[in-house]
Design a protein that fits this description.
about 375 residues, single chain, six-stranded mixed beta sheet, about 25% strand, about 20% helix
C-alpha cells in the first residue's frame, strides 16, 4: 500500500515505479533483521534493524557527481567531507542505525576489495564509503551491534532496479516518524526541460517528528489523530526527536554545486509534512547525477562535461520538494505496527482515519 493507492493528493507526475530507481542505473537493496521479543537483553535482542544500500550507477567503479547538505548536523554520514571537497561519489550509499555506521563502513570496504581479487590489497590505499544513520533504539537492541557482514552483503546482493520496498525494511526497520511507525519511503518525478524528459528520484529514511505536526495533503492530520500513541516502557533518550536521511538521484546533467542546491530543496518537502528539524535531529541530504560518470581508472584524464544552466533548474527544485513530501508519506503508509524491546509498541498510520480527516476537510479523494 502506498499513499496514492489511498487517494492522497500529490502534485507532479511520477516515474513508472514512483521510486528512486526510476532514474536509470540506480539500484536499491535492503537487508531486514527482525528477531526476538520481550525484555531487552543487550547483545541478544529483540532486534529490529537492518541496512539499505544504494548504487548510483550499478556495481562498478564509476564515479558520479554528488552534492551534500546538512540541515541539522546531529547525525552521521561518513565520506561526506570528500563529497563536499571533490564533488564526487565513488562508493555505494548505505543507511543503517546510529551504532552500526562503523561496522557497515568497514564491511563495504571489504566488499570493495573482494570485487577485484586480481588487484593487491596494497592498491586499495584508501576508500571512503558513504554510510548514514538514524536512531532506532526505541524498538531495537541498538547496543547489540546486530548488523553483520552477512547483512551488508545481503543488501548488496538484493540491490536491483526497480525496487519499491518501503516501510519496515532495511535501515528503516526500527524507525519512527511523527510518532507513527516510519522507515523507508521513496518517490519520483518526471519533468521536461528544453523538450527532454528528466527524472528525479528521492529515497528517505524517516525517523523524526511529533504527532501534532504531521501534515498530509495540506491538512494537519496529526492534531486529529490523537489515538495510537506509542507505548514506550522505558525512558526515551532525552530531547531526541530523531532524524531524516534523504538521498536524491537524477539523470539531469548537473554539476556538484547544482546538486547541493537540489539537496537544499528537501527542506520544503519536509516542511509540507510538518518537519521542522529540531536541535537533536540529524537531517542530512545527499544528491547525485547519473548523467556524467567517470571510471575510477580515468581520474587523471581530461573530461568533457555537459550540464544545465542555472536558469533551467527551477523544475528540478520543485520536483525534489514534491518527491520528498510523497516519499515521507509513503514511508508512513507502508509501515506496519511494530513491537520491539521491552514490548515498546509503535503503531502504523491508520489509513481509514487519515482519509476520514482529509474528507472532513473536503478533499476529493478517489473511492
Amino acid at each position: 500500500m502506498r499513499a496514492r493507492d489511498l487517494g492522497i493528493p500529490f502534485d507532479g507526475t511520477t516515474g513508472q515505479f514512483n521510486s528512486l530507481t526510476d532514474v536509470q542505473g540506480v539500484e536499491v537493496g535492503h537487508s531486514t533483521i527482525i528477531k526476538g521479543e520481550g525484555e531487552l537483553v543487550v547483545g541478544k535482542g529483540p532486534i529490529r534493524t537492518g541496512v539499505t544500500v544504494i548504487f548510483p550507477v550499478g556495481k562498478n567503479d564509476k564515479q558520479v557527481f554528488g552534492g551534500i547538505f546538512s540541515l541539522n548536523g546531529n547525525g552521521e554520514m561518513t565520506g561526506s567531507h570528500w563529497v563536499e571537497e571533490s564533488g564526487l561519489i565513488m562508493s555505494p550509499i548505505c543507511i543503517t542505525n546510529t551504532h552500526s555506521v562503523g561496522k557497515v563502513r568497514d564491511f563495504i570496504i571489504e566488499w570493495k576489495i573482494l570485487q577485484s581479487p586480481e588487484r593487491s590489497i596494497d592498491e586499495f590505499r584508501w576508500f571512503l564509503p558513504i554510510v548514514a544513520e538514524t536512531y532506532d533504539g526505541v524498538l531495537n537492541d541498538i547496543n547489540g551491534f546486530h548488523v553483520s557482514k552477512e547483512h551488508v552483503f545481503e543488501a548488496i546482493d538484493r540491490s536491483k532496479s526497480p525496487n519499491t520496498e518501503e516501510g519496515n525494511v532495511g535501515g528503516g526497520t526500527g524507525m519512527i516518524c511523527h510518532q507513527f511507525k516510519g522507515g523507508i519511503g521513496t518517490s519520483s518525478r518526471v519533468i521536461q526541460i528544453d523538450g527532454e524528459d528528466l527524472t528525479v528520484g528521492v529515497l528517505v529514511q524517516a525517523n523524526y517528528g511529533n504527532r501534532s505536526d504531521l501534515t498530509i495533503g495540506g491538512v494537519n492530520v496529526g492534531k486529529e489523530l490523537t489515538e495510537l500513541m506509542p507505548k514506550i516502557n522505558q525512558k526515551e533518550p532525552s530531547g531526541k526527536e530523531g532524524s531524516l536521511i534523504v538521498i536524491i538521484a537524477t539523470d539531469a546533467p548537473l554539476l556538484p554545486y547544482q546538486l547541493k542546491r537540489l539537496c537544499k530543496r528537501v527542506i520544503f518537502g519536509l516542511g509540507r509534512v510538518g518537519g521542522h528539524s529540531s536541535n537533536s535531529s540529524g537531517d542530512i541530504f545527499l544528491a547525485f547525477s547519473t548523467h556524467n560518470s567517470v571510471d575510477e581508472a580515468d581520474s587523471k584524464k581530461v573530461h568533457d562535461v555537459k550540464f544545465l544552466g542555472n536558469s533551467s533548474l527551477d523544475p528540478l527544485f520543485k520536483s525534489v520538494a514534491q518527491a520528498t513530501e510523497e516519499a515521507i508519506i509513503n514511508s508512513l503508509v507502508a509501515a506496519e505496527t511494530m513491537q520491539g524491546i521491552n514490548n515498546n509498541t509503535v503503531y502504523a498510520l491508520p489509513h481509514d482515519r487519515v482519509l476520514e480527516v482529509l474528507r472532513t476537510y473536503r478533499f476529493k479523494l478517489e473511492e
